[in-house]
Amino acid sequence: MKVNPNHYVRREFDRYANEYHEKRLDPKKSPFNYYIENPVMERILKPIVKGRKSLELGCGTGIFLKKVQSWGGEVDGVDISEKQIEIARRENPDAKFYVCDVDYLKTSFGKYDIVYSSLMLHYLDDLDKLFFNVARALKDFGRFVFSFHHPFSEIMDEVKVKNKVYNVPKNYFTTRRYRWGMIGMQLHSYHHTFEQITQSMKKHGFLIEEILEPQAPEDKISREITIPPFCVISSVFFRD
Ligand SMILES: C[S@@+](CC[C@H](N)C(=O)[O-])C[C@H]1O[C@@H](n2cnc3c(N)ncnc32)[C@H](O)[C@@H]1O
Asked: pLDDT tens across 14-31, in order?
């Protein structure tokens, strides 16, 4: 029997739910989230969520969702991992959460003003499915804001020569699954090119407002980062 690869991601986020939550709560253990990715998501979402209905895809334990609530937004959360959602429910008793693989997301038609997603998109093989499902969930002129592993960072291999580490790029154009990990988790993600991502968005009615490649503030992350770890895209949805 063929196992859906998303099952492995769910298994790891279930297994390490407590450790992941603890890591995400601590800026020292998650500096890339706190100082590189979150500030950009915050800059885009904070001014627009108040009084609006949002949906967070891959909400994990609901840490960012709590912020959106504190800015006056009404948010539902979706995640494939039951254990992450258990913590999210405990930490955010006023929000609604659904255990769901976004590949099979079926919300009411045009239910949300905003859909956003923090560092989940790279787990998906089929982006067409995602943009189709998000388009279904959004109102006309709704917003889709998401962050993901920067496509350029995904093709880098670290090669050590005489105790020096060099970044060597693999073929950018080959879409492939790659393995990586954090806090003991064994994860895989998918490399998609910018053209594949943006063409799929165009096909489903998303007009891009901004493509951002956030950098680390020097006072927070001391080591030099020469390749953007993340990309953030903000878009507006137009129904045909
Ligand atoms: C790196 S975590 C980010 C969690 C949260 N957004 C945060 O910033 O802390 C990625 C999340 O995406 C979820 N995820 C991965 N693949 C998914 C899928 N196919 N459907 C729904 N959630 C998924 C994982 O379970 C995990 O909670």
From this structure: 999 999 999 999 999 999
Q: What is the set of domains in the chain, with CATH numbers?
A: 6-150+191-237 (3.40.50.150)
As a 3-state breakdown, the chain gives helix, strand, coil percent values, each rounded to 5, of: 35, 30, 35
In short, whether 22's Cβ falls inside 6 Å of ligand 1 is: no
| Residue pointed to by tokens 């073929």 | 171
What single letter denotes the amino acid at residue 164?
Answer: K
C-alpha to C-alpha distance for 151 and 166, rounded to whole angstroms: 18
Place of tokens 């990715």: 37
Distance of CA 204 to the CA centre of its chain: 19
Q: What is the residue with the minimal CA distance to atom 11 of ligand 1?
A: 58
Q: Is 12 in the pocket of ligand 1 (CB under 6 A)?
A: no
What pTM was estimated for this model as a whole? 0.95
Q: Which residue matches tokens 């258990």?
A: 86
